[in-house]
Amino acid sequence: MKRRDFITNSTIAATGFLFADKLNAFSSTDFISKRPPVEKRKFVSKAVEVKITEVKSAIKDKELAWMFENCYPNTLDTTVEQGTRDGKIDSFVITGDIHALWLRDSTAQVTPYLSLVKEDKDLQNLIKGLIHRHAYCILLEPYANAFLKDTSEKGWDDLPKNKPGILERKWEVDSLCYAIRLSYQYWKATNDASAFDEEWQNAMRLVVKTFKVEQLKDGKSPFTFIRNTTVHIDAPPFDGTGNPVKPVGLIRSAFRPSDDSTWYPFLIPSNAFAVVGLRHLAEIFAVVLKNQEFANECKVLADEVERAIYKYAVIEHENFGKIFAFEVDGFGNRLFMDDANVPNLMSLPYLGFVKPNDPIYQNTRRFVISDNNPYFKRGKFAEANGSPHTGKTNVWHLGIIMRAMTSNDDLEIKKCLKMLKNTHADTGFMHESFNPDNPKDFTRHWFAWANTIFGELILKIYNERKLILQNEF
Fold first, then answer.
1. Burial letters for 103-138: b for 16+ Cβ neighbours within 10 Å, e otherwise?
2. Are the CB atoms for 208 and 278 separated by under 8 Å?
3. Per the confidence metrics, is the pTM higher than 0.85?
4. Which residues pair with 84 in a beta bridge?
5. Is the dihedral of CA 37, 43, 44, 48 positive or negative?
6. Are 376 and 383 in contact (CB under 8 A)?
7. Do residues 91 and 127 make contact, with C-beta atoms less than 8 angstroms apart?
8. Percent of the chain surpassing pLDDT 70
9. Of 43, 203, 355, 438, which residue is least crowded by CB atoms under 10 Å?
């Protein structure tokens, strides 16, 4: 069994520096930086260091400022490995406590730095190198979600057997969407289109081809996944092919962003993400590459998927009115829940699929943070969305962070900041999941995605609602 949630607070990852060996091993009142010494940091960005100082000075709550200082640069401090490949810049960004690159995680980990790339050429090259690496990974295996640094490393023992260089081959629509997102946002931030070389273009064509195959219009897919496991959500049923679907224009995702298998394989947040990504691809191919034919192909597919979402996944809920379902199968069955991993229903405005004030989204949001959502849990220290990935009791820091990221309510944002401050378990870092009644019972000491997106949240508040940071939490 190979599941990231099995790395708990009893496991100290080999990070190149030491987290606290035991909770409460240091006094949180001291607020001493938990970053590695400068000489042990994987990457140092002058622009990021300036931004840390600038934002910290605007945060009245010393503990929250300390958490920002620890978390925001965590990806750069601990997960970046740079080099060259085929004469191009190459950046390998690991997820944290597993030495592997997830297309999803690595994109989310560097996203909060995009606003600073114009001020730091080295930082710009770092992200450009990750775009190159993503293209290479997709061409190696478009159905894989996690990759190893080189082909000499061995992946996990699944069936079909993983190719060299692949950690695991879980088909997740969002993985490919994240690669598009990074490319598009980098281009918008820099106006640099040099990353869109032949390798990248071939990778993007393969993305679109894979999306079309997984619409299952001819009932066939090359994807299966079998794992020797006692956890039923760690592999799809029916010899790794998944539950049946009726082709309706949606894209099948065998797994969720949590790396758990879907129940109804048309995962709506990931399909919504695909709509956004395909339109971004269309813009790049039309504006930059002057390939209107492929741009139109992307637009047509995006429109088809979007129509299917609104036809098959907008459901009248007995308590909330029209909401987006989490998963559907095209036969009329649907699953009402949300998972803390992004993309999820809560994140739809963050992804760019809907506006924050969209009525269906607002109804959906009320559902997500209610007791009608089976994975929304309330405890002494937090109320938040969790995930089947970590069981029935734990909630996720990502759930709290994304709730704040998509809120227009100052009081709700303050509430989320208070919960984040009260649940880092004296470590100064975010974690994967934790018990809302006992935050010291948590999973994953070193989860760079959660750390860095916490930094992204603080930056967003600093840029848009700075007065919030003048409060004590």
1. bbbbbbbbbbbbebbeebeebbebbbbbbbbbbbbb
2. yes
3. yes
4. 89
5. negative
6. yes
7. yes
8. 94
9. 355
Closest CA to 360 of 316, 404, 312, 403: 316
| Residue in 343, 424, 340, 430 with CA at minimum distance from that of residue 388 | 340
Q: Position 174: which residue type? A: D
Q: Give residue for tokens 């603080």.
A: 458
Residue 53 to residues 36, 59, 469, Cα–Cα distance (Å): 17, 10, 14
Q: CA–CA separation, 455 vs 430, rounded Å?
A: 10
Of 48, 68, 49, 73, the closest CA to residue 58 belongs to: 68
Confidence of residue 29 (pLDDT cuts 50, 70, 90): low
Report yes or no: 16 and 41 within 8 Å, Cβ to Cβ.
no
Distance CA 257, CA 262 (A): 10
pLDDT in tens, 74-94: 999 999 999 999 999 999 999
Rg over alpha carbons for the chain, rounded to the nearest Å, is 21
- Within 10 A of 77 (CB to CB), how many other CB atoms are there? 26
Distance CA 361, CA 367 (A): 10
How far is the C-alpha of 106 from the C-alpha of 94, rounded, in Å? 7
pLDDT the model gives residue 30: 77
| 9 pLDDT above the threshold of 70 | no
